[in-house]
Amino acid sequence: MGHILANVGNHGVRIGRIAGIRITLDWTWFFIATLAVGSITSAFAAAGTGFLLALLGGLLVAGGFFGSILAHELGHALTARRFGIRTESIALHVFGGVARLMGEPRTPRQELLISAAGPAVSLALAGGFWLLALALPAGLTIGLNVVVATFSNLAYANLVLGLFNLLPGFPLDGGRILRAWLWSRKRSYSEGTRIAAKVGEGVGLGLMCLAAGLLFMTGAFGSSLMLGAIGFVVRQAARAEGLRVGSRVYARPSGHEPGGGGESRGGTARVVRLPDGRIVIVHDI
Questions:
Q1: Domain boundaries along the sequence of the chain
Q2: What tens digit of pLDDT does each residue of 33-74 get?
Q3: Fewest C-beta atoms under 10 Å: which of 11, 70, 237, 276?
């Protein structure tokens, strides 16, 4: 998500490669993984499951969920590979996961398919886990109940993951799908990105307001904090992307866009101060 997560995956544990793509666990992942295992284990224990079975259930649900996030990101990466776009790495972190693509889509269709691949994987996993939960007979043994509950929880988690990422808030997948549509309609990658980024800022603000309301109404501090943090990251990343495409360094031809080779268009040059304090000459397009 833009410069907010620019360093995610640079500092962490490299656990191997899948399809030639480096997989990294960011240091922040260990924090959220510990919380997830502890919370799920407590929920199983409160339901009358013994500690060992509860711990096993917590490990299975948390492990399955993080594996699902990895599958979600692999969906993006492998679809991008079909269009000649390599993926440097996939990192799991406190907010989920991020695939570092080493290029940008060259057409609206490529943007659409790459962006939709992740949610499609999540929704397919939700359906698969749901069918597994239905196929197993519950109530026979406590151990079997834990397995059924694990599949049910993973079905729900993947459903939420898939639908949440379809929110039209850039840089979420739904925001990138929106950009693909705008890019196609307006025939301008930059204009599509600018509009999608503005919508993303609004979605991020909405998530932050929703988090505040959730905290006020229910007192659920942990959930509210996480939702508010995600909203903040979405808002800041959308704003950064809007700045990136809204003002291009003057030396760069303004007609250059992914998939485009048009001639340079006219514009006005001005001096702006970037968020990091640097002053540059930019060209408005």
A1: 1-166
A2: 998 999 899 988 888 888 899 999 999 999 999 999 999 999
A3: 276
